[in-house]
Amino acid sequence: MLKQVNAMGDPCPIPVIKTKNAIKELSGSGTVEVLVDNETAVQNLTRLANNNGYAVKSEKLGDKEFRVVMEVTGAPAAQAGEDDSETCLVPAGTGRNNTVVVISSPCMGTGSDELGATLMKSFIFALTQQDTLPRTILFYNGGAKLTTEGSASLEDLKSLEAQGVEILTCGTCLNFFGLTDKLKVGGVTNMYDIVEKMSSAGRVVRP
Amino acid sequence: MREKKPALIITFSTTTDAMGMEQFCAQNALPGRLIPVPREISAGCGLAWKAPVEAKESLMAAMADAGMHWQEARVLELWV
User: Fold this and answer.
1) Of A6, A161, B27, B46, which sits with the fewest C-beta atoms within 10 Å of its C-beta?
2) A183 lies in some domain
């Protein structure tokens, strides 16, 4: 038996809920074919299949069209009381989550400043490659140098800002390093904002 | 709207070779930048050179002329 689900344009967790309903309607073994419009939905559906032991494959049909096919083997997918919000561990689309990234040094880790600077550049590039972007990136102390003239990460940070990520640099730090007039991306912030942003974050990431 | 576009990715067997590529390209005005190796590629060290796809021939020729060592060159779609 084949069940087809059209979840094009549906925000998370709707594609997962529709798929669970289709699996229930199968009342046993069969195939569920789901159409979605973003890669995050593909990931969420793949995780749903993996969690239930179903074979799953996906393919990209077009720029914003993906097909996910699950081979359901009879076991019920949705247990009573299961929280559908848990199926959105990767939030939908290109949205931002409630993560705040804190960068307090131009180097990532200790041992070699040359390697540390390369790693930090890599970290900021890798941020641009995440399906879900952080809400805010805070820069303070030596990290303030990364948002100013001459930073090798400006292109990546401008790209993140263009996607709606808030980029904030500590004003006290810019002043200390004589960089107040050299800020090239984002805005200036103070310690009260820094405390509020960090304490209201769902998760704080410090490379 | 975010979109993915093809990019040339060159991998290296050592971190030093990858960091040497950054220096080599800066000195010779060659295009590209150092990035962490994308997840789609498992081989090699953790750093790779990302450049425009159309620069592949000139980059590879310059690297070969300079006796640079690299592992693999391929095209991947990355967020821009």
Assistant:
1) B27
2) yes
